[in-house]
Amino acid sequence: MRFGNWDIRPLGGWAGCLTMIVVSILLSVLLTVIVNLLF
User: CA–CA separation, 37 vs 39, rounded Å?
Assistant: First the structure.
């Protein structure tokens, strides 16, 4: 996928899978905290 100048390549194997899982968990926690602080 490409976002402007960024070229995002999905990592292969277990490392890529683990990274995507950790990133998604961190993002969901971060969004929950931000929403709770706003409201």
Answer: 6
